[in-house]
Amino acid sequence: MDERYDPAAVEAKWQRRWREGETHQVDLSRAARPYYTLMMFPYPSAEGLHVGHAFAFPGVDIHGRFRRLQGHDVFEPIGFDAFGIHSENYALKVGKNPKHLIPQTIENFRRQLNRLGLMVDWSHAVDTTAPEYYRWTQWIFLQLYKHGLAFRKKAPVNWCPTCQTVLANEQVIDGYCERHPDTLVEQRLTEQWFFAITKYAERLLRNLDWIDWSETTKMAQRNWIGRSEGAEIDFPLGDDPTRALRVFTTRPDTIFGATYMVLAPEHVWVDDLTTPAHRDAVTAYRARVAKMDLVSRRAAKEKTGEFTGAYATNPATGSRIPIWIADYVLAEYGTGAIMAVPAHDQRDFEFAQAFSLPMVRVIAVEGETAETPLSEAYDGPGRLVHSGQFDGQDVDVAKQAITAWLAERGAGQARVEYRLHDWCISRQRYWGPPIPVIYCDGCGIVPVPEQDLPVVLPDIEDFRPDASGVAPLARVRSFYEAPCPQCGGPGRRETDVSDTFLDSAWYFLRYPSADRHDVAFDATLTRKWLPVDMYIGGNEHAVLHLMYTRFITMALHDIGLLPFEEPFKKFRAHGLIIKDGAKMSKSRGNVVNPDQYLDQHGADVFRMYMMFLGPYEEGGDFRDEGIAGVRRFLDGVWRIIREHVSRRLAGPLPMLSDDLRRSTHKAIRKVTEDLDGLHYNTAIATLMSLLNDIRRFGPPDRFVCESMLLMLAPFAPHIAEELWEHLGTVGSIFDAAWPAFDEAMLHGSMIEIVVQVNGKVRARFQTSPSTPEQMVVETALAAVGNPTVKRHVYVPRRLVNLVV
Ligand SMILES: [Zn+2]
Ligand SMILES: [Zn+2]
User: Which of 309, 415, 546, 678 would give a disulfide with 232, using CB separation of 3.0 to 4.6 Å?
Assistant: First the structure.
């Protein structure tokens, strides 16, 4: 393979060596400079690895290899997020139990991942569907349950009739199921298990100010948490002044303009308040809304609603205002009731127009009077009007002043509200870890004792979900019948399984301890290796997965199981790879299969090409044309190293030109900075231009050749290893040190070294003041034709005398 670059042969050889030499395994307990680099573990689909993985994973691997070359003990694990509805639906389609299918798809993934040449430590791989793993997922559930963070309650949830399970709000797109664009999502009121993530809303938000994450990801999290400051205000009921409807508003300053109230149709007081004359219409309306999902209710354009016949009193104006119900008010936001200020809230404005309700303007802007008619709600700055003693106050001042005034009169108080909901973790499906609790008539909810874990998911033939909302395990008597752990009487196991997002909310804690059967995560290893140094993944996980990992980490920290409360020191979101300007999808027919490219070009060319498509954090457009250029570059590197080796065998090397020395140092500086900032495409461009300089200003010396290979190694690890061996170096290139650049070489502050042979001046050359003695002497030897010398004398920064 020496004379011609043959990627297939080189890659097979090095993948075998890495495997046999366990090059990618780290001794986790002994490592001196631990560095944990994490990629988002894949869900092993039947289709195999897609091009998004082939972009994301090498990007993480390049970072890990770079850190290793910089002297860190890099731990780069991987695993499989193999529970969940995707695998289950596929299993249903082909009529096999996912338990039997998953091992095959994992095997295929493992083969493809290995072809990419990743530095992963397979000895710490995890599979979320293995009982050794989900035993600890169940254990985490129990820890949260014991500390009051897991609870069961009846709640309105999104239900996909096709998936036959509940969906998170984020999985509902314009009212339709994310997986079933033809299926309208329904709303159901059912008993579910929840994690109390809202208790952590403020901390999850506040920590965003200091964690080192991509700004785009932090912004998505801030929006999802959705903190709003406002006031809770009580509106006494018209006919019963001892009772009051409580609302939450972010605009207490506009209370004088509240001309009616709206309750969510699900509000518990609706039945009570509705007068007989309005009962039929209200009942019919509530039935209609019950069929709609939460997301489309939020997005609904046409305003609908019903008057209940009841009235409340505006505590600021003292006037009687009607109480309506409408679908645009959601039960789980705030109190499920609002004060409507049609002049200054667009949805209230549209509703008031549709039902001819009164509008009172309470904010005026310069140059307008309070009587100027509105064509839409005004929610900008201004001064209060029609607001009694608060007239003339700026809205921002009035917010506080009115809240304080209401509080004084016992009618309200300041309050903070969040958009974030508690995390519904139960699923009425088969393919997940059973939730480890037992129901007993006498004792109520009894957690499964820790020593009885795992509650193993049974191997059953009929695992189809059905529309009843009851999980398939509820049909398996041998599963659900279990004695109560407390009283020994007859009990019934929970038959719901937990959300896949719980499996992935803690997997990074498991990796270092993947081989431990006695603990979920070993305390010493966890302290040594965590938090994760660098986590890289897609921004499509900015809210669900990345918020849940933060919550679980914080909860385990508070319970006393983790010494840190944020799981990742750094998180960077990578971009997306598109094709012909569009997202890749089966329906567009523009899906790229990485296998085909790996077959044709090999992993090194493919990895480099993917990274060259565009900035890693932005992504790029996949085009076939560019790939040949990357191949030419690697052919070029191969050639210059081969030439260097044969030239060295043939005799002494000529002296390195100043130009090439300078451009090599420049390249080292630039590539080091670029790798640090994940600017892979510009680092590759720098290597390409260094190759050109080698051709122009060559021949290169050993330093140039080694630097080139070391900088190439993170991107194209196989060819770098092979050529490193050609240079006559022993061991893996990844055990060598990252090249250092010399600032003096860049700025021309060079010194002149005089070369003497037996005391007579024979040559002079320029070098940096910090060049080490060995390299100065080597250059001196080259400058006088590499004579055989007995010894040398070195006067630092001045001269070398060679005694022959
Ligand atoms: Zn669905
Ligand atoms: Zn009992």
Answer: 415
pLDDT in tens, 601-637: 999 999 999 999 999 999 988 887 789 999 999 999 9
Residue 682 CA to residue 677 CA, distance in Å, equals: 11
- In whole angstroms, give the CA distance from residue 175 to residue 364: 37
Which ligand minimizes its atom distance to the CA of 184? 1
What are the residue ranges of helices labelled H in 564-657?
Answer: 594-601, 603-612, 627-650
- For residue 176, give the ligand nearest its CA: 1
Q: Are 201 and 524 spatial neighbours (Cβ–Cβ below 8 Å)?
A: no
For residue 749, the model assigns a pLDDT of 67
* Contact (Cβ atoms closer than 8 angstroms) between residue 716 and residue 634: yes
Phi, psi dihedral angles at 491 (to 5 degrees): -130, 175
Neighbouring CB atoms inside 10 A of 795's CB total: 11
pLDDT at 804: 87
The residue type of 249 is T
Q: From ligand 2's centre to the CA of 486, what distance in Å? A: 5
Q: Which ranges of the chain have pLDDT less than 50?
A: 1
Q: How large is the greatest C-alpha to C-alpha distance in the chain, in angstroms?
A: 118
* Residue type at position 37: T
3-state helix, strand, coil in the chain (%, to 5): 40, 20, 40
Ligand closest to CA 85: 1
Q: How far is CA 93 from CA 44, 46, 123, 308, 711, in A?
A: 16, 12, 33, 48, 47
pLDDT tens readout for residues 668-680: 999 999 999 999 9
> Any idea which ligand is nearest the CA of 443?
2
Q: Checking phi first, is residue 121 left (phi over 0); if not, alpha (psi -120 to 50) or beta?
A: beta
Is the bond preceding residue 531 a cis peptide, omega within 30 degrees?
yes
Non-local (6+) Cβ contacts of 383 within 8 A are: 363, 364, 391, 392, 393, 394, 395
Residue 283: CB atoms within 10 A of its CB come to 14
| Residue 85 CA, ligand 1 centroid: distance in Å | 9
Give one DSSP letter per residue of 76-110, joined into a string: ---EE---SHHHHHHHHHHTS-HHHHHHHHHHHHH
Distance 448 CA to ligand 2 centre (A): 12
* Among 737, 750, 740, CA closest to 776: 750
Q: Which ligand is nearest to the CA of 168?
A: 1
Q: Answer whether 28's CB lies under 8 Å from 512's CB.
A: yes
Q: Rounded to whole angstroms, how far apart are CA atoms 275 and 311? A: 10
Distance 160 CA to ligand 1 centre (A): 5
Least Cα distance to 346 among 377, 322, 310, 317 occurs for: 377
Q: How many angstroms separate the alpha carbon of residue 438 from the centre of ligand 2? A: 9
Question: How are beta strands 576-579 and 619-622 bridged, if at all?
Answer: parallel
Cβ 678 vs Cβ 63: under 8 Å: yes
Q: Which ligand is nearest to the CA of 158?
A: 1
**Residue 129: predicted pLDDT:** 97
Radius of gyration of the chain (CA): 34
CB 721 within 8 A of CB 732: yes
Identify the three-state secondary structure at position 413.
Answer: strand
| Cα 700 from Cα 698, distance rounded (Å) | 5
Q: 245: closest CA among 336, 343, 351?
A: 336
Residue 180 C-alpha to ligand 1 middle, in angstroms? 5
From the CA of 463, how far away is ligand 1's center (Å)?
Answer: 17
Measured distance CA(579)–CA(714) in Å, rounded:
26
Q: How confident is the model at residue 2, as a pLDDT?
A: 59
Q: How far is the CA of 171 from the centre of ligand 1 (A)?
A: 9
For residue 134, report the distance from its CA to the centre of ligand 2, in Å: 25
